[in-house]
Fold this sequence. Notes:
This protein is an alpha/beta fold. It has 9 helices and 12 strands. Strand 11 and strand 12 form a beta hairpin. The termini are far apart. 38% of the residues are buried.
Amino acid sequence: MSAIAVSQVSVEIAGKPIISEVSMDIEAGSWVGIVGPNGAGKTTLLRAVAGDLGYQGSIKIDGVERHAMDTKTRALALAYVPQRPAYPEGMAVFDYVLLGRTPHMGPLAAERSEDIAAVWDALRALSIAEFAERDVSSLSGGETQRVSLARVLSQGTAVLVLDEATASLDLAAQHEVLELIDEIRLERSITVLSAIHDLTAAAQFCKTVLLLDNGKVVAQGLASSVFTEEILRDVFEPTIRVVEIDGNQVVVSLRSEGSADAK
């Protein structure tokens, strides 16, 4: 059974079609990347899977239709990190990560020993236990990304949905966060569905990729079959080049020959 099964899913916002008849099956424990230009519908698709948006078609999480899940059931099955998480000023990192345990606690219930243990486990897994008492809003970009991952890790779900987990990070920090996600995925058999802006990173970390353009699937499958110059030039721009370095696909955009200073 697929961890996530999306069949003929369409989403409209304010009467405008955003994604149309998208289908994909994601194996348990795999990492699937959603790629495409700005406005392609990547975030909309993730929000539909995560439960933030209504949809037509079918989205199943571990065989259960998402429409049939109440909020708590969905939160126990799937964790979601939006592109720009809110970090409340004055909240300690430990308390922020503890929010991930909310689905496991009853209304107005105090945290239990297992909840505290899950938070410390997540903090240690992301190497940020030393930040437990820090104000979460005072951390750097890379540090807050780790905190967001720790929060969903403490949630204890088998499915993780990430929207641009490395947005606004420098190149080194991007790679570090992606490596952490992959390590956690492998160690805990977590299924990851993520939107990724960097095509080279998607080729390195995602088992398969789905390429969206104008809300429709252009191609999906192994990165080696999707990230070809012919496909990418049609979706992005004619100056795209795909090269191989040390066995890895690298996608680059060259300056057009017609540019004023191009030589």
